[in-house]
Amino acid sequence: MSEGRILKPDKDFSQETDKQIPEAQELAKSDLTSAIEKLSLLEKQTRQASDLASTSRLLVAIVTLCKEQGDWSMMNEQVLLLSKKHGQLKQATTKMVQAVMGFIDDTPNKDVKLSVIEALRTVTEGKIEIFVEVERARVTRILSDMKKEQGDLNAAAEILCELQVETFGSMERREKTEFILEQVTLCIEKGDWTQASILSRKINTKYFSRKPKKTPEQEAKEKADLEEKKKKEKAKSTEEEIPKEKPVDDVTDLKLRYYEQQITLAKHESKYLDACKHYRQVLDTESVENNPDQLKAVLQRVIYYIILAPHNNEQSDLLHRIVKDTRNSQVATEAALVKLFTISELMRWPLISQRFGPHLCNTDVFAQNAPPTSSDEQKQAHARFEDLRKRVIEHNVRVVAKYYTQIRMPRLCQLLDLDEEETEKYISQLVTDKTVYAKIDRPARVVTFAKARSADEVLNEWSSDMRSLLGLLERIDHLITKEEMMARIQPGVGKVR
User: Fold this and answer.
1) Tens digit of pLDDT for each residue in 121-161?
2) Could you tell me if 288 and 282 are in contact, meaning their C-beta atoms sit under 8 angstroms apart?
3) DSSP letter assigned to residue 50
4) Angstrom distances, CA of residue 223 to CA of 42, 217, 308, 449
5) 440: part of which helix (H) or strand (E)?
6) Most CB atoms closer than 10 Å: which of 120, 213, 282, 421?
7) What pLDDT, on the 0 to 100 scale, is given for residue 263?
8) Predicted structure pTM score
9) What is the pLDDT of residue 368?
10) What does DSSP assign to residue 12?
11) Residue 461 φ then ψ, to 5°
12) In this predicted model, what pLDDT tens digit does every residue of 230-275 receive, in sequence order?
């Protein structure tokens, strides 16, 4: 097969091609093989003369004749045969592949459709792939969809995931994103969470970034500039067609689909902070903002997952930013719940469960019970409800550590509404996460939250206090001296005789 560069034709066979194609079409009605042989003889001459236009027309004509006569097996044979001819022009093969792709929907049954797809995949494999990479990707996707309809998810995912569409230069960005999203969907459906996570990283989220709204003045200025540009181009050349500007691509559907997948992955791995961030990205979508029902649902889930996330600096910062969101007035119950996590006061779990539990369990995020026969989603919802209880207890431990240096274990258990074993477990967990400092004296049944200081630290603190005290004394001495000097120069005070 010749290289991809376009060569200057040695001879123009356009007239012969115009003459023989109609003749072959008439002959094919009675004898398809003879018609193909007739066009093949001319195709050899055009190929050897590097006449790209005529060769392309002949290749397309041959496969079209086979399709019109309903001989699909012959068409598959010709596709494979013509693509392997010595010195075959790659651009001509590309035209043939594109023509055959248009015939896929006209196949009489699934078996024929599958044979056509396999023939195209065979032709587009190898060195020619860079010329027909988009066509190969589309054919592969059709094959993957067929496997999925048959219920073979593993085969569908394996076929589609072998495509590295992010490297395809001739494919538009939107189509690339759709392919990767489909790959992720198949991996999630078959339970390959690791592969789904890897594939989702190939999508650059900047592609989904929201474009700032233009003011009426900016829109009017852009419209005037565009009209002026068109006038200048029209004045330069009236014969050349002015290229139309590409409209701005709306990627809202892709953005929502992408973040829906990311939320599914985050929930599967119990990464609540990531789920909250993804919901905030969904919240920053015009279609969601304009839909009150969707807006309310997303606001609720932003709050649910931020309070479920383990406490750290990032979670605390995001929590306080979410509390300040004015839109929380639409979800008053959730707003009241999240505000409790920003106040350094104890949250008694029985009261929290009684006040917010029924409302939270009406959603698909939480569930108070999960019988053994319940679904996986029900079990995950129950696990999230238990995680909410843990976050309330951890919040209470942090509050106690803030106000107490030492506390007896019975009193601490009373404040936390826990037994002694659970209290030790939660304190140990927070100490391990370096959220609080604590030591438990089991024989004395005392918990110490004040960090023990070394001799150097005590000495440094004493030294600092002494310097501060001496500084204050020096300032007092200075002020007394100043007052005495002022008193001496007061008018009317004479010498004592």
Assistant:
1) 888 887 565 678 888 899 999 999 999 999 899 999 999 99
2) yes
3) T
4) 53, 10, 49, 67
5) strand 439-441
6) 120
7) 95
8) 0.79
9) 84
10) -
11) -65, -45
12) 666 665 544 444 445 455 568 899 999 999 999 999 999 999 999 9
DSSP string covering 87-144: T--HHHHHHHHHHHHTTGGG-SSHHHHHHHHHHHHHHTSSGGGGTSHHHHHHHHHHHH
- For the purposes of burial, counting CB atoms within 10 Å of the CB of 255, is it exposed (0-12), middle (13-18) or buried (19 or more)? buried
What letter represents residue 495's amino acid?
K
pLDDT at residue 490 in the model: 76
Average pLDDT over residues 401-405: 91
- Output the six-digit token pair for 72: 């699909």
Q: Where are the beta strands (DSSP E) in 363-425?
A: 406-408
CA 152 remoteness from chain centre: 26
Output the CA–CA distances (angstroms, integers) from residue 367 to 45, 336, 348, 361, 392, in the order listed: 75, 20, 19, 5, 17
> What amino acid occupies position 377?
E
Q: Which distant-in-sequence residues (6+ apart) come within 8 Å of 116 by Cβ?
A: 72, 75, 76, 100, 103, 104, 107
Above 80 in pLDDT, residue 227?
no
Give yes or no for a contact between 430 and 436, defined as CB atoms under 8 angstroms apart.
yes
